Amino acid sequence: MKNNQAYIIFTRIPTPGKCKTRLIPTYSGQEASDLQGDLLADLLASVANLPAAGIDVFVAYSDEQDPTNFLDSLPDTVQAFAQHGENIGERMNNAMATVFAAGYQEVVLTGSDLPELTAQTIQRAFAVMKEIVIGPSADGGYYLIGAQRGVDLAPLFTAQIDWGQSTVLQSTLRAITRHDVQFLDAQLDVDTPDDLERVKQHLDHHNQQFQYWFTEEEK
């Protein structure tokens, strides 16, 4: 039986030269792609029990390549679909709309490059949600966005937002002033070599693949 809550992991298919490009040339395209895959693997392992707790898990994946091998690698408990849209805002909006259209009452979406993210964070997001919930990121954007069914998300994703810039959160909040917005604690995503150095000292047991990546890079 389907649950009423859904969690979407928004990710690129790990592809050399197509993901984590801000880590290049400090790291090679292959190393950056491997990191993307390891971060996603850790996150999927961390949220593996969410369906049993009432939260179905989806992966919305990018379209750089044939997704067959990527889809085969996903756990059986995860449902997946391709992203669609001209920019990241449209893609996130379409991803959430897809899941709402399947009948879910509350939806939360995050990226996949979040070493601090755990299942407890996702559960917390649903627990505090009234209309909209946001998890700010340290770079001025946000790592998590969630909403209840019936909330008009179009202003949130179609406003004049410079995606990837430090003003994303500020611009987003201006676009949704009519809604009740709850906030989670800030977290750091991994985009640059400096980000890697900052999170390196705070890895936990749920960062198994990420820790392995560091070990391999230091050889």
UniProtKB/TrEMBL annotation:
<dbReference type="InterPro" id="IPR018641">
    <property type="entry name" value="Trfase_1_rSAM/seldom-assoc"/>
</dbReference>
<protein>
    <recommendedName>
        <fullName>Glycosyltransferase</fullName>
    </recommendedName>
</protein>
<dbReference type="Pfam" id="PF09837">
    <property type="entry name" value="DUF2064"/>
</dbReference>
<dbReference type="InterPro" id="IPR029044">
    <property type="entry name" value="Nucleotide-diphossugar_trans"/>
</dbReference>
